[in-house]
Amino acid sequence: MWSYVKQPVTSSQKIQFVWNEIRDYLVITVGIFSYALGWVLFFIPYKITIGGVAGIGAITFYATGIPMQWTYFAINALLMGIALKFLGLRFVIRTTYGILMMTFALWILQENISPNLQLLGDGQDFLACTLGSVMCGFGLAIIFMHNGSTGGTDIIAAAINKYRDISLGRMILYCDILIIASCYFVFNDWRRVLFGYVATFIYTFTLDSVTNRNQQSVQFLIFSEKYAEIADVISVRLHRGVTVLDGQGWYSKRPVKVLCILAKRKEAVSILRLVKSIDEHAFLSESNVHGVFGKGFDRIKVK
């Protein structure tokens, strides 16, 4: 048996950790402003609601004129206890940042952009619905991918997603259906409800497409006489496990070693470059993997 000895954290690792945190917050901020712009430029001027706490704030704004950011902030303040209990302190800190930054983004954008400004012209409700949904879905996706949250139903979705293998977009969709339907009582127009459902479908599709693309994994099978050197480099530089399989070439009848590697899609280019730098004549196959569960990948969430 062997035991793992924890290595001391070096100064370069500390710097890398701090940089990763700063980068995450910068990307979360970009996602928040993308989400807020989708509302202010397209949804609010064309009276479209997609649900969530922002949707409740929008409906309140349509009915009473109260700026949506204040309703958004008040409801999220009540939901922070859920995030602390189920998702941990780090998520709460990022969620608090997301809520405050979203409140600021909605406030500063609504102060400078008229709610009656129809950027696309009259009668372009469907185009506004599509563009606003893509901006909101993309913004929320990159927020989630960097362990952030805009609060509201995002908190509920992330809590459930932590323990059950259900997509974030689907959980948010379930939370939003009733909120969208309630806008009928403000407008007395079923067209607004239908636009809301179409917008939600597009926005959740965008959310899942972006997040699933980022989480996809790939499998490599590498045939090379320099298999040991390739395995060492991938293990040391990319910190990815490598399995050596015994095989036999049917034509040559010679024994061969095959490297089997599972990695994130974003690491695929790095693996290809490393293999080429060691053995440019290596025979290699790359295939998409639907799901990979275990250390370094997703956790099995079914009972």
Characterize the structure shown:
- The N terminus is likely disordered.
- The chain has 10 helices and 4 strands, in the order ααααααααβαββαβ.
- It is elongated and about 80 Å long.
- With 303 residues, the protein is an alpha+beta fold.
How are the SSEs ordered, and which strands pair?
Layout lengths: L10 H33 L8 H13 L3 H45 L12 H21 L7 H11 L4 H14 L2 H4 L2 H26 L1 E7 L3 H11 L4 E7 L6 E10 L3 H11 L4 E7 L14
Antiparallel strand pairs: 1-3, 1-4, 2-3
Helix pairs in contact: 1-3, 1-4, 2-3, 3-5, 4-8, 5-6, 6-8, 9-10
Number of domains: 2
Low-confidence residue ranges = 1-7
> Helix share of residues?
55-70%
Q: Number of DSSP strands?
A: 4
The average pLDDT value, as a whole number, equals 82
Q: Encode the helix/strand succession as letters.
A: HHHHHHHHEHEEHE
Largest sheet: 4 strands, antiparallel
Largest sheet strand order: 2-3-1-4
The DSSP helix count reads 10
The secondary-structure class comes to: alpha+beta
Structural Rg? 24 Å
Per DSSP, what share of the residues sits in E-state strands of 2 or more residues?
Answer: 5-15%
